[in-house]
């Protein structure tokens, strides 16, 4: 059920690739709640995905932009304000990619040129988005910027590789820029730490399927779905959260604060209980 909590608000959704992606679900939810959007992704991602289908559904324009390019970002914000008829009220940063992960390079054998690309694409891009928006005065007061992250920024998950460092840096950028943007324009900046989610990007992480089921059993509420995350991001764009900024918000069914679940203990007990063998 929609309540039109974003009526009159407009913004940019970065990172929608296909119908499984959180950005895709968020775009749909934002529009259902009365928001107007521009969709953006890197040119290569636009060729790989189905974003034109989403654009048609959401009556949205697609504006290609490499989020690591200041020139592209300036053009994106300028065109977005033209298309939407004024300054923006929200931005979703759903951008992340690791060449090391894609090429199957182990963390301890990290290729450092790849590592720098990971940091640029997955973390520094948020700084560039915020810097460009501030420089161009593209966001209204009390606007909301949300970036998607993961608990590997705080805890070690071996298969997450150098994306863990990227997410940690991104969360720090959100706090630091949130301070400056808050004082300057009352713009709030937060990160949402989502459950492992079955998306094209998430499924590329080594051991994802096993960990997805582990997290499902560990979390009191189970894993939060892409649709759940879209609802949460939409709420973060609304005026109901106008005093929330510089926070890393765990949206993971309670996984982040659960030491171990009874269900997992029982599974471990079964696994380590010797099987009786008859004579």
In short:
This protein is an alpha/beta fold and 279 residues long. The chain is built from 10 helices and 7 strands.
CATH topology name, in short, is Rossmann fold
Please provide the count of β strands: 7
Low-confidence stretches: none
> Which second-level CATH architecture applies?
3-Layer(aba) Sandwich
Helical fraction equals 40-55%
Task: Give the total of domains.
Answer: 1
- CATH C-level label: Alpha Beta
Order of helices and strands: EHEHHEHEHHEHEHHEH
Radius of gyration equals 20 Å
The portion of residues forming beta strands comes to 5-15%
Q: Which features would summarize this protein structure in a list?
A:
Rossmann fold; 279 residues; seven-stranded parallel sheet; 14% strand; globular; alpha/beta
Structure notes:
By secondary structure, this protein is of the alpha/beta class. The chain has a single domain, classed as 3-Layer(aba) Sandwich (Rossmann fold). 45% of the residues lie in helices and 14% in strands. It is built from 10 helices and 7 strands. It has helices at residues 22-32, 43-48, 51-58, 70-84, 99-102, 112-135, 163-185, 208-218, 226-237, 262-272; strands spanning 10-14, 36-40, 61-62, 88-93, 139-149, 188-194, 248-251. A 7-stranded parallel beta sheet has the order 3-2-1-4-5-6-7, sandwiched between helices. α1 packs parallel to α3 (51-58) and α1 packs across α9 (226-237). The mean pLDDT is 94.
Q: How are the secondary structure elements laid out?
A:
Layout: E1 10-14, H1 22-32, E2 36-40, H2 43-48, H3 51-58, E3 61-62, H4 70-84, E4 88-93, H5 99-102, H6 112-135, E5 139-149, H7 163-185, E6 188-194, H8 208-218, H9 226-237, E7 248-251, H10 262-272
Helix pairs in contact: 1-3, 1-9, 4-6, 6-7
